[in-house]
Design a protein that fits this description.
The structure is a homodimer.
Chain A (H helix, E strand, L loop, with lengths): L2 E3 L3 E4 L14 E6 L15 E7 L7 H4 L1 E2 L10 E2 L12 E11 L3 E5 L8 E7 L2 H4 L7 H6 L5
Antiparallel strand pairs in A: 2-3, 2-9, 3-8, 4-7, 4-9, 5-6, 7-8
Protein name (chains A, B): tRNA (N6-threonylcarbamoyladenosine(37)-N6)-methyltransferase TrmO
GO biological process, one term (chains A, B): methylation
Organism (chains A, B): Butyrivibrio fibrisolvens
Chain lengths: 150, 150
C-alpha cells in the first residue's frame, strides 16, 4: 500500500547542514504553497505549533538504522528506531513543537525548528496542551542525549 | 514533488466508526509489519509514545476544509485547517500522544489513540518531555472544543 503526499510548503533558514545540537536559537520561516495560504487563519492566537516535515536528506537502511545507538554515541544504549527520534527512519517524518514568532500572509515564522533549509513541510498543527502535553517518564539516557539539543 | 510512504503497521481496536468525543478509554493495538518488529526495542521504558497515522478515510476538499469551524460547531470560530486538528487536511496525517500499556514482540498496546480500526500507522516516536512538552497558550475556544474529547 503506497501513500502519496505533497509538500504544503518549505522551510527557509540559515541552517545548511544537519547537526545534532543547538537548535534552540534558530529562527525558521515556513513558506506555504499559495493554495494553502488561507489555512493559516487563526494561527496567530496560538503560542506553539507542531511542524511535521519530510526528512528528505535522510536515508533509512534497515541494517544500520532499525536498531542503533542514538547519535551513534557509545554512551547510549542500543535501541530500536521507534524508541528514538533519529532522522533515518521508515517514512522519514520529522516532528517538532516550536514557538510561533509571527504569522504573515503566506509565511509562518517559528523558533526552535530542527530542520535544515529547503526541507519540505507536510503539515502544521496547533499545539493543544490538553492533547499534546504529557507528564511522561523516559529512560535515563534521554536526558543525557538531549542536554545540548536546544 | 511527490513523497511516497508505506504503513509500518495497522491500528486494531473496537472503534469501527469515527467520532468526535470520548477517545480516552479506548485501548488500541498497533500491529507492526514483520520487517519493523525489532524497531520496538527499548520502547517499554517510555510511559508515552507519539503515533503518526494516515487518516485514510478522511477526504480533504479545499472549499470545505481549508477554512472551517472545528467539528462544524456553530459556537466555534472560522479558522484555517492549520489552526485546528481536524482530520480532513492536506496530507491527512494524524498525530496523538498516548500512554503505553504494553509492548510485546510485534505489538504495541496504547491507551487514548483516536484512530479507528484498520488505520495505517506511519511512525511511532517516543515522547521526550524536554522536546514535546510545551507550556503553550491557546485561544479560548480550544478548551471548549476539547471538553469531552477524552
Amino acid at each position: 500500500m503506497k501513500i502519496e503526499m505533497e509538500p504544503i510548503g518549505y522551510v527557509r533558514n540559515e541552517v545548511k547542514d544537519r547537526k545534532d545540537v543547538s537548535w534552540g536559537e534558530d529562527t525558521s520561516s515556513i513558506v506555504l504553497d499559495s493554495q494553502y495560504i488561507s489555512g493559516l487563519k487563526g494561527l496567530e492566537d496560538f503560542s506553539h505549533v507542531i511542524i511535521l516535515y519530510h526528512l528528505d536528506k535522510a536515508k533509512y537502511e534497515k541494517d544500520k538504522h532499525l536498531q542503533r545507538r542514538p547519535q551513534n554515541r557509545e554512551d547510549m544504549p542500543l535501541v530500536g528506531i521507534f524508541s528514538q527520534r533519529g532522522k533515518d527512519r521508515p517514512n522519514r517524518i520529522g516532528m517538532t513543537s516550536v514557538k510561533v514568532v509571527s504569522v504573515s500572509e503566506d509565511t509562518l515564522v517559528v523558533k526552535g525548528l530542527d530542520a535544515i533549509d529547503g526541507t519540505p513541510v507536510l503539515d502544521i498543527k496547533p499545539y493543544y496542551p490538553v492533547y499534546d502535553k504529557k507528564d511522561a517518564a523516559v529512560p535515563e539516557w534521554v536526558d543525557r542525549l538531549m542536554e545540548h539539543y536546544f
